[in-house]
Amino acid sequence: PGLDPSKDYAIRFQPVARTTADTVTVPAGYQVQVLFSTGDAVEAGSTAWTEGAFPAWDVTDKRAGGDNDGMHYFALPGVDPQQGGLLAINHEQVDMRVYFPSGTFTGSFNEATATLDQKRLALSSVGVSVIEVTQANGTWSVKHDSTYNRRYTGNSAYGVGGPARSRLGATIIGTLNNCSSGATPWGTYLTCEETTSNYFDSSQPDVNYGWVVELDPQGELLAQGVKRTAMGRFAHENVAYLVGEDNRVAFYMGDDTTPGCIYKFVPTRAYDPVNRAANVNLLDDGTLYVAQFNAGGGGVWIPLVQGNAGLTAADGFATQADVLIECQDAAVSVGGTVMDRPEWITVGPNKDIFVTLTNNSGRGTNAPVDAANPRAENHHGHIIRWNEAGNSPLATTFTWSIFLLAGDPTQAATLNKPNLAGNINGDAFSSPDGLRLDPAGRLWVETDMNLGSTATPTVFGNNGMYCIDPATGVSKRFLVGPVGCEITGIAYTPDLTTFFVNIQHPTQAWPEAGRTPRSSTIVIRRADNQPVGA
Ligand code: FEO
Ligand code: CA
Ligand code: CA
Ligand code: CA
Which stretches does UniProt call biased (Basic and acidic residues) (predicted)? Predict the structure, then answer.
């Protein structure tokens, strides 16, 4: 199942105006439903959070974590995927408001004074929720008795695959800071550990975190999550794949570091589209590359292989495990281009690849301006498009161009910084982060503006979601989130009549007046059951 050939997928919706309203604003004819919020019950038999109650970690370890982020919708065998399936949803951070009574800590979590149980409570709020969801007459709900419902948390045990297992051991407790994510062609979920340094003081080794973790929402291939170390250790944002001839696959990944590189991982073997079990450890053996963006629109994928120039024992890389664990250093030493904070990467149905570079106000200071990062003090970010040579996942070269520079002329004039105006054709935004080319080839952009200094809601409205026609570059504002939130995560049914989107860290009265604001997964549909965005 996929797009419905009887339906129209052209971008025809009437865009919404920028707003700072404390609600989810969508075009006329669209409906918004809150599906799944921090503290909701996940595992069968668990209970939901109630206002003012702060239970033990082994209770919250079975509930929805904080800060819903990247997610993916999976079909289930024997179930019409337009009507029901599995959602795997990342939880990026601890929501102190839901997890701890006010006054437990001053300001933020304090490792020095926290008890072991408090640390476990905090760790229960990161990781992944897998929930079975089902639709009845346009209304979606979580199947609370489903045996698929499962939490993977900062307290769970994970296997270790790939070359760095030699240094890390066979088991690691916890996954951390699960930002965005991806899927594999064989239907597993890839949850990405991003800014894991937030969870350690400088005296502690943190090399166990910063990996891509593969898990099977169906619980069939993998009994537990597995850290796939061959894909490198850095501040992983998300993963997007390109399948080529003979079922060879490339997985693209951004390092959301200021500044950080763009990578791809190419497994040695082709994937097996028929025998799912044959792919079980495919991600443990392959070649990791870093991207070098050159002036003139050309680019090169440089392999990160121990023994290559700059990656020898004399340089501190005695084994491939060393290369993978110190991946950021290895990437820079071989000539990888440091980008203005790579967030999401997406691969379209026509094999175009896009990446959001969310912003880097220190460009010009922390790295020189270059062709692919052309603005000093890049407060608003940009989006780059590239194509692999021959559109092949095995390519070692690519061509690239800047798709758009984000920003707003009004603000640029106010600040007397023409450099911030950008060149968006239509509804302007700042700090693109979430990004997805849907199966109809429409580019969805979700923003994560710094709500402080230069990028202000008075210019752009609250963070939102925009739909861009890649052919014309025309941007239309589709959704605006409530106060204080960022918009992240995008998933949909195969016919695109249902979209799932995450509202992360709202700060006022959304989604329920009179209660603590909570990160939530929402459902967006049209009353006439036509595709979203059309
Ligand atoms: Fe967690 Fe880079 O966003
Ligand atoms: Ca992000
Ligand atoms: Ca961000
Ligand atoms: Ca976030």
Answer: 1-7
- State pLDDT tens for residues 15-51: 999 999 999 999 999 999 999 999 999 999 999 999 9
Using left for φ > 0, alpha for ψ between -120 and 50, and beta otherwise, residue 370 falls in beta
Q: What is the pLDDT of residues 111-153, one digit of tens each?
A: 888 999 999 999 999 999 999 999 999 999 999 999 999 999 9
Ligand 4 centroid–CA 28 distance in Å is 28
Query: β-pairing, 298-303 with 342-347?
Result: unpaired
Residue 92 in contact with ligand 1 by CB distance below 6 A: yes
Residue 534 lies in a domain: no
Contact 81, 75 (CB under 8 A): yes
Residue 179 Cβ inside 6 Å of ligand 1? The answer reads yes
CA–centroid distance, residue 219 to ligand 4 (Å):
27
0.90 exceeded by the pTM? yes
Q: How far apart are CA 478 and CA 446, in angstroms?
A: 10
Q: Residue 412's domain is classified under what CATH number?
A: 2.120.10.30
| Domain extent at residue 84 | 30-526
Q: Is the CB of 237 under 6 A from ligand 1?
A: yes
Structure tokens, 82: 């337009």
Residue 506 alpha carbon to ligand 1 centre in Å: 16
* CB of 486 shorter than 6 A to ligand 1: no
